[in-house]
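Dear H.,

Thanks for agreeing to be a second pair of eyes. The structure we're designing against is below in token form, covering all 315 positions.
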């Protein structure tokens, strides 16, 4: 395997109990101008799941699935909650790790999905500690595509009808952030569309699919990518829908709340047959992809001008 002596799984982090929820959310939105009401609403989503985000267990499961695949130690650190990346890197240094591949749990270009992980790497890196090399975007990698296609197929089978439409979903982001994603802009959406098309092709489908957005945050006066998945379901002429959360790598809170609770409830009200495809999670082909990424030539870091941080607004 390449010349890495460890893998660092770098993730978002999430609360592990009711008392963690508000401090976690404060970490996430520090300086990002997310209105208080939105924060309290999202806190309720977490509290309705006992204050526990599924993302941490998902990451633990991914690490267990990766162990037999890799011949180097695997470390885990987060941006917004324990185990914090800062602490993990100190352990890696103490263990004598010199150069680690960084697998960020986010597949596509953009500030939130890519640049912010570079910022994390810069912040947590320490003198005499491991060099941290971020792996490339993987939303169009055959391993990711095959895992998503497999899960979409299973959801189609559960629904049991061949007239269902594939409706891909991804996290909405501010329009300004979408416009500055990638070296020449628009790369978040462009990569998502290519990935969705590859999944559709892998299923041998020629029917049209759609890409819609979910989990909008931020102040209402700032435009974010649309249409929202719920608005889309209200208007769709599709006789049945399979939601494919292509923009997420595991079934975390946005997926289990915004899709499995909200979208499902709406579909039931509308009488619209709907299933949700699983995310890549620990699909064996996805797990193998991590090893394949580590065996590739060391990826060049994105240019610093790429996916700039949004202008900060006070809450
Ligand atoms: C593109 C994207 C991804 C996908 C790529 C990736 O996976 O990295 C993603 C993932 C995630 N987002 C997550 C959670 C949150 N995101 C928030 C807020 C925001 N997300 C944004 C974008 C994205 N977010 C943006 C532009 C904001 C506005 C504030 C800001 O500019 O930062 C907020 C604040 C409250 C609110 O929702 O308003 C929370 C709690 C969790 C953890 C879930 C769990 O606990 O299971 C995960 C994996
Ligand atoms: Fe988010």
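And this is the sequence the design step returned. I haven't edited it by hand at all.
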């Amino acid at each position: 395997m390449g010349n890495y002596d460890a893998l660092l799984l770098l993730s978002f982090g999430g609360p592990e109990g009711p008392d963690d929820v508000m401090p976690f959310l404060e970490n996430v939105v520090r300086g990002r101008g997310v209105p208080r009401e939105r924060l309290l609403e999202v806190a309720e989503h977490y509290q309705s799941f006992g204050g526990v985000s599924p993302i941490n267990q998902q990451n633990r499961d991914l690490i267990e699935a990766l162990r037999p695949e890799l011949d180097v130690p695997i470390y885990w650190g987060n941006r917004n909650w324990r185990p914090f990346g800062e602490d993990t890197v100190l352990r890696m240094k103490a263990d004598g790790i010199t150069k680690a591949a960084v697998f960020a749990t986010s597949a596509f270009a953009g500030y939130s999905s890519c640049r912010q992980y570079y910022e994390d790497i810069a912040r947590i890196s320490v003198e005499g500690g491991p060099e941290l090399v971020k792996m490339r975007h993987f939303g169009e990698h055959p391993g990711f595509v095959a895992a998503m296609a497999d899960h979409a197929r299973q959801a189609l089978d559960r629904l049991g009808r061949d007239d269902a439409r594939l409706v891909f979903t991804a996290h909405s982001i501010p329009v300004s952030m979408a416009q500055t994603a990638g070296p020449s802009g628009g790369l978040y959406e462009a990569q998502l569309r290519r990935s969705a098309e590859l999944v559709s092709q892998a299923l041998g489908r020629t029917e049209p699919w759609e890409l819609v957005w979910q989990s909008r945050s931020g102040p209402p006066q700032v435009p974010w990518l649309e249409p929202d998945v719920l608005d889309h379901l209200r208007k769709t002429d599709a006789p049945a829908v399979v939601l494919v959360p292509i923009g997420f790598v595991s079934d975390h809170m946005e997926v289990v709340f915004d899709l499995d609770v909200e979208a499902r409830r709406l579909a039931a009200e509308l009488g619209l047959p709907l299933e949700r495809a699983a995310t890549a999670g620990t699909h064996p082909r996805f797990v193998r992809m991590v090893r394949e990424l580590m065996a590739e030539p060391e990826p060049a870091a994105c240019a610093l001008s790429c996916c700039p941080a949004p202008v900060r607004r006070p809450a």
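Two observations from my side: Residues 142-159 form the longest helix (18 residues). The beta strands are 6-11, 74-78, 99-104, 131-134, 165-171, 210-214, 241-244, 274-276.

Warmly,
E.
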